[in-house]
Amino acid sequence: EQDVNEHRKSLAIRVSGFDVPKSVKTFEDCGFSTEIMSAIKKQGYEKPTSIQCQALPVVLSGRDIIGIAKTGSGKTAAFVLPMIVHIMDQPELQKEEGPIGVICAPTRELAHQIYLEAKKFAKSYGIRVSAVYGGMSKLEQYRELKVGCEVVVATPGRLIDMLKMKALTMTRATYLVLDEADRMFDLGFEPQVRSIVGQIRPDRQTLLFSATMPRKIEKLAREILTDPIRVTVGEVG
Ligand code: ADP
Ligand code: MG
């Protein structure tokens, strides 16, 4: 019985905000294209995880979100899948340069995982994904970014380096994800995160994910999100 209660607690979902879109029960409910549906099936994802059930319709509706959930809850797909839809909805994709989707993560390992997940879904649309993090040649990254991409997955420090080198501009970025925001702050990336956010147009869609919500992250969220919906999974935050 203890176990059952623990399990229930870990799945409990709390949602706050106004005009919250109805949660989904299946990926079909999200209205994804056949390409995305087949990529989802190929991953072996049968149904959305708890956070995905609530976050997917929120993000697909264009709203800002604060997602609070611990590791392993399936947050990556919750922001990658709507990002593909967001990019495909852009008229005249080729006209401007620079990424439409900008994803920041605390470490190169995390950035790389997100990069791989994004590539799986981006591939069939010809959406180009670039990874930008330390440990790789800056010159090579500079060259890759110069060719152009629709999505950049980055650690904050290296993205700042690339912006300083003018490897990319963020003038067409309209979809910003801050993944594991608490860890980015723990690692001292607050100034870099703030600088990146400051370089992206204010009418963007912003998604902030964090395992915990310390005061500093609450403050950031208040400053950079617009009428966010908060989705909390389990006994966290
Ligand atoms: P988080 O970012 O919350 O830590 P991830 O996005 O890394 O979680 O997902 C954790 C694991 O769950 C990954 O191996 C991922 O492939 C898998 N996963 C994500 N969504 C689903 C789903 N709907 N069904 C089954 N597995 C999933
Ligand atoms: Mg994650």
From TrEMBL:
All copies of domain Helicase ATP-binding, residue ranges: 56-231
GO molecular function, one term: RNA helicase activity
Ranges spanned by the short sequence motif Q motif, renumbered to the chain: 25-53
Transmembrane segments: none
Domain DEAD-box RNA helicase Q positions: 25-53
Highest taxon, organism lineage: Eukaryota
Keywords: ATP-binding, Helicase, Hydrolase, Nucleotide-binding, RNA-binding
Family: Belongs to the DEAD box helicase family.
Protein name in UniProt: RNA helicase
Full protein stretch here: 205 to 441 of 772
